[in-house]
Structures are given as C-alpha cells and as structure tokens.
Amino acid sequence: MLRRDAPRIRVRRVPTFDRETAAGGYVGTYLDLSHLNLTLAITGGIVLLLGLVGGYIRNTFWISEPIVATLVGIALGPALLGIMPGIHPSTHPGAFMHELARLTLALAVMSAAIRLPMTYISDNWRSLTIVIGGGMIVMWLIGSILAAFCFSFGWMAALLVGAVVSPTDPVLAGVVTSGSIAERNIPGRIRHLLCAESGLNDGLAMVVVALPMILMQHADAAALSDWAIEIVLWEVIGGIVVGAAIGWVAMHLLKWSRRRALSETHSTLTIGIALAVTTLAVVRLMGSDGILAAFVAGAFLNRAIDDSERIHEHIQEAIGRFFILPIFLVFGAALPWQQWFSMGWPVLVFALAVLCLRRMPLFLLLGKIVPDIHTRRETLFAGWFGPMGISSLFYATLAVQETGFEQVWPITALVVLASVVAHGITAMPLVRRISTDMCEET
C-alpha cells in the first residue's frame, strides 16, 4: 500500500487474540501456530477432495468450487463445528487475511495475464479503457451512493465502502473466462475482456480506495497531494514500471533459455508462479503494493510463451486451484455472523443492491460503445459476470488497518459472500445456455 515512511498514514496493529471474544469478531485473521499443521491438513485435504470431485460437483449441481470451499469453511469454522482451530475471528481484520489475499491476488492476476493472447492489451485498448477507466469509476460511485442510502455513516465512509467493492475479482471471474466449457461456448473477445478487466482493475482500484481512506484521516489539501504522489505516481505508475522491468527481464531470460534448450515447456508453469511471488515481494520491499505490478510482469512474460505451450493451461489451473481455494476456506470460517445480525437489514439490502445495480446498468449504457461487445446478449452476460471476491477482501482489510473504520469488513464480507453464491450458481447454466446463443449470433 503506502510507503512505510509516508507521514500521514497510520497503520493499526492487530490486537492480541482473545479466545473469549473469538466467537463473534470481525474476521479470522489470527493464525494459531500451535495448530498450524492441523489447519494445513484440513486445507490440503479439502483442496484434494475438490480436485477429485470438483468436475462432478460443477457439472451436476452447477455450483463453483469457491462456493464449496466457502461452505466447508463455514462448517468447520467457529460458527458451527469449530474444528479449524488454526483460524479464529479477532476484533478486526489484520495481517494474516490481508497477506493471504495479497498472495492469492498476485497469483490470480499473473494467471490472467498469461491466459490472454499475446497482443491483446495493445490490440484492444479501446475496450479496456472504457470498461476499466470509466467503468470502475462509475461502479465506485454507484456503490458509494448505495452505501450512503443504506447506512448512517457519512459520505466519506460511503465512498470508501463503494471503492472497496468496485474491483472485479479475477479469481471468481476465472470461472467464466477459463476452462474447456468457457472456450467452447463464450466468444474469445468476451472471455478475454473479462479476464483483462479483472486482472487490471485489482491494482488500479488502489486509486479509488486510497482517496477516501486518506481524506478520512486528513481532510486537507496536503491529503490530495499525498494521494497524487503516494498512490497515483508511486503505487500505480511506479507499479507498472517495476512490473514491466521485472517482466521484461523474465521474458528475455525465458527466450534465451529456450533458444539454448535449457528449459522445458512445463517449466513455464513454475516460472509464472515464481515470477508472481518475486514481483510481489520486490515491490512490497519497495513499500508499494504489487498486485498491478504482478499483472504487468505476467503480460510481459506472456510474450515469451508460444501457442504450443498454452495447451498446458489446465495444469496451470490445477496449480492455481491449490493456491486459490484455501482463502475461500479461510473466508468461510471467518464470516462475521454476529456483526451481520447486529447491523440488521441494511447490510443485506446493500449486498443485494450492489449485486444487481453496481455493474449491470453500466454495461447497458456502455455496451454499445465497447468494440468487443457486439450484441445485447453479450452486454447482459458481461454486465452480470463482474464478481466481487478476494480483491474486495484485500482492500477491506487494508481499509480497516489504515483507518480503523471496522464496519467496512462485515459489509464487504456479506457482499463477497453474496457474489460467491450468486455468480457461482449462475456461471455454469448461463455459460451453457446464454453464451451458446451468443456464439451463434457471432
């Protein structure tokens, strides 16, 4: 996020875990190291089980793997069985959930960048500019208006909540942008548009998240200067430059290695994961965030991967599943049930309103001017599949740590849960029924 020497941003430390308050805190962010092996065994076993029967569950019951992982987390977590002792709710979000979300996002955006055609971003910059440039701002404002309507806090807090739920999640979007079923039924330009959008706007969302976050602490002209320097120049532009530099080096090293037959095709998978982790760590050590840098680095690495290597994408998805599903397991175990009950109907109304109104009206208005969207069916399809997930959790935990505004966590958690369920249930039937008609029209 912000540089460690930034004078105006205060990072709140995670309080000591209190077992007496564990049953109803905001989020599972405390990792009990004494039970780490049990937690890893449960997590690994669930991922193994989903790997064995995930296809049957998805094709038979039409529910996605993130839904299953979240439900298992709920069942095993403190809310029900309480047999995942390594993950406990504490009083507010902290480092564990935040860093787990950061690593998951870095791997997800790297995977999204590698899945895109080699020159997609440069060839389709008009569509991306409309969907990401104008689209993210509109989704931010719509979410903020809904937050101001549903809750009693002020406009600055509403702008923060709206910003947190504005990015499209690459993990959940991958349900309809990757895999053989998606490739057979959805036109490539739609899949690639959703994939690129979800990969890019996770890092760019820092611009809209940080503005209200800084203004909530320092509502003066200096705050705007900090935002412009620390966020726009350092986080975004700096992240792009650093990610491009790391990706450029990795691209040329891979090409050099291939020319001398020093590496094999399947090593690309390892290189992609290693590049995501390396980029994330390097940029983090520099005091920045790293999500956007990971996507840019992946886009450069993509230029060194030829079409023959893309047949191994299913292997990459399998590896990605191992890194991605655990966070949904943790998320399910950490859901803030008591906070939802205490907040009452407004939080439920907000979650449902965001699900229906945050994105669809935007695409109905902009669909006709996006070059990659050709028909009304495609407009409806792209307008619906803009899920909120790990990226929103990442920014929610960041907002709580930086501002102490703890309500952003239970609000975001319910929005993400609603999105996981709604988009996970509708993905398979709509891909098979609606997108088949789209292919016929094109």
TrEMBL record:
<feature type="transmembrane region" description="Helical">
    <location>
        <begin position="36"/>
        <end position="56"/>
    </location>
</feature>
<dbReference type="GO" id="GO:0042391">
    <property type="term" value="P:regulation of membrane potential"/>
</dbReference>
<dbReference type="GO" id="GO:0015385">
    <property type="term" value="F:sodium:proton antiporter activity"/>
</dbReference>
<feature type="transmembrane region" description="Helical">
    <location>
        <begin position="68"/>
        <end position="88"/>
    </location>
</feature>
<feature type="transmembrane region" description="Helical">
    <location>
        <begin position="318"/>
        <end position="337"/>
    </location>
</feature>
<feature type="transmembrane region" description="Helical">
    <location>
        <begin position="199"/>
        <end position="219"/>
    </location>
</feature>
<dbReference type="GO" id="GO:0120029">
    <property type="term" value="P:proton export across plasma membrane"/>
</dbReference>
<feature type="transmembrane region" description="Helical">
    <location>
        <begin position="128"/>
        <end position="149"/>
    </location>
</feature>
<keyword id="KW-1133">Transmembrane helix</keyword>
<protein>
    <recommendedName>
        <fullName>Cation/H+ exchanger transmembrane domain-containing protein</fullName>
    </recommendedName>
</protein>
<feature type="transmembrane region" description="Helical">
    <location>
        <begin position="408"/>
        <end position="431"/>
    </location>
</feature>
<feature type="transmembrane region" description="Helical">
    <location>
        <begin position="155"/>
        <end position="178"/>
    </location>
</feature>
<keyword id="KW-0812">Transmembrane</keyword>
<feature type="transmembrane region" description="Helical">
    <location>
        <begin position="290"/>
        <end position="306"/>
    </location>
</feature>
<dbReference type="InterPro" id="IPR006153">
    <property type="entry name" value="Cation/H_exchanger_TM"/>
</dbReference>
<feature type="transmembrane region" description="Helical">
    <location>
        <begin position="379"/>
        <end position="396"/>
    </location>
</feature>
<dbReference type="InterPro" id="IPR038770">
    <property type="entry name" value="Na+/solute_symporter_sf"/>
</dbReference>
<feature type="transmembrane region" description="Helical">
    <location>
        <begin position="266"/>
        <end position="284"/>
    </location>
</feature>
<dbReference type="InterPro" id="IPR004712">
    <property type="entry name" value="Na+/H+_antiporter_fungi"/>
</dbReference>
<dbReference type="Pfam" id="PF00999">
    <property type="entry name" value="Na_H_Exchanger"/>
</dbReference>
<feature type="transmembrane region" description="Helical">
    <location>
        <begin position="100"/>
        <end position="116"/>
    </location>
</feature>
<keyword id="KW-0472">Membrane</keyword>
<feature type="transmembrane region" description="Helical">
    <location>
        <begin position="231"/>
        <end position="254"/>
    </location>
</feature>
<feature type="domain" description="Cation/H+ exchanger transmembrane">
    <location>
        <begin position="53"/>
        <end position="432"/>
    </location>
</feature>
<dbReference type="GO" id="GO:0005886">
    <property type="term" value="C:plasma membrane"/>
</dbReference>
<feature type="transmembrane region" description="Helical">
    <location>
        <begin position="343"/>
        <end position="367"/>
    </location>
</feature>
<dbReference type="GO" id="GO:0036376">
    <property type="term" value="P:sodium ion export across plasma membrane"/>
</dbReference>
